[in-house]
Amino acid sequence: MNFAELIESATKIKRKTIAVAQAADLDVLQAVTEASSKGIADFILIGQEAEITELLKGIGSSTEEFHIIDEPNIKRCCQLAVQLVRDGEADIVMKGLVSTADLLKAVLSKEHGLRASDLISHVAAFEVEHYDRLILVTDSAMNIAPSLTEKAAIIENAVKVAHSLGISCPKVAPVCAVEVVNPNMPSTLDAAALALMNQRGQLKGCVVDGPLALDNALSLEAATHKGIVSEVAGYADILAVPSIEVGNILYKSLIYFAKAKVGAIIVGAKAPIILTSRADSAEAKLYSIALASLYADQENR
């Protein structure tokens, strides 16, 4: 699957409703307008109504397409977006022109938030030229130095995203600097443990093998050259990184060096969260909307 196919798939499911916290952002509104016109989702736009209206008119979009809630207070915008999902009036929360901290505070509120488990994680889907599939990377934005238990939960979250993309049994590579277990490199011990957990049925719906270095996770030629025999080597659908530093650098390297296309969501809460960066393009935000819609559809079923 590529992003064109992902968009097409998102147009064929029941339209989701997305609550956008502080929607007065040009790239956000461009993505929202395109997603609406393609029939992917309906939108509730929260923020300063006059500013949102002016921006919509500037891109030739009709305000009649959207439900706009006038709310000048940024923190209140986040709370309202979360509340709409809690009340069943929306399916997905989307970040607009607000800080990640403000939105996550509303999402993770014990009393009024969307907590469903102890761990939420970031899953990014990349379309890289010359690859025949989307590559999922996790976690490059939420969990700083996850423990073995947290890494297992991160993989479980990513596997659900892969399933929503039609990948029935995704191949997961816990990536490290090397493809052998080295007691001096704790990430390789965790990778081997995750592979064993999968073999014993503790991580279901996927195949996990590691440790694997990035080259032999993605290149069958590299894996063969190193004598690695594995269901995952050369065929990885999910790259599970050992830390946020590795994930963040890989994420940005794919975008800036490989010119990859990207869509990303936060999962593990009661609803998916579209938590794009201000630097992300309108195109990336559109892909994130489609990804979140497919994921929400699967979870609802």
UniProtKB/TrEMBL annotation:
GO MF annotation list: phosphate butyryltransferase activity
Keyword Cytoplasm: no
EC number: 2.3.1.19
Ranges of residues in domain Phosphate acetyl/butaryl transferase: 3-73, 79-292
UniProt entry keywords in alphabetical sequence: Acyltransferase, Transferase
Membrane-spanning segments: none
Entry's family note: Belongs to the phosphate acetyltransferase and butyryltransferase family.
Protein name as it appears in the record: Phosphate butyryltransferase
Organism: Caldalkalibacillus horti
